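User: Fold this; tokens only.

Assistant: Input:
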Amino acid sequence: MARLCMGASADLGWRHEHRDRRGSFWRSLDPGQKPSRISWIAALVLAILGVYGVLAYSVSLRTPEFGIRIALGSSKVSLIRVVLLEALMPVGGGLALGLLASLAPTRAIRSLLYETSPADPASIVASVGILLAAMFVAAFLPAYRASRIDPIKVLRAE
């Protein structure tokens, strides 16, 4: 009987220890981490809405330019590429500055983090990948709208 209890507790301890070794990003997906999950989902939604709003406004201002490009023979793919690259510049710059700024105070926040390092590579790669995917999602709709502009209507409006 004692062996059974010892074996069960040792097994549970190993599972608990194994679970805690995961990165902080993956731990935030656990059901018990609801406030953390809600906060990063809200931040991601706000980032998507911000990029979408800025790009939609920028594309609406550049409608005559896109109409002329289409009239001169530009393909829809090249217009989508132009808008996506326009979105990538500030997002890429913000990611680079954010990574540099997040690595600067690592000594100060090391004591505040539980079982993860401030420069956890898995968390950094996951957050950069998620933000780039969110940028693509937010930028695709304005890019698609820019590629569907009717050049005749735009040139008549001028």
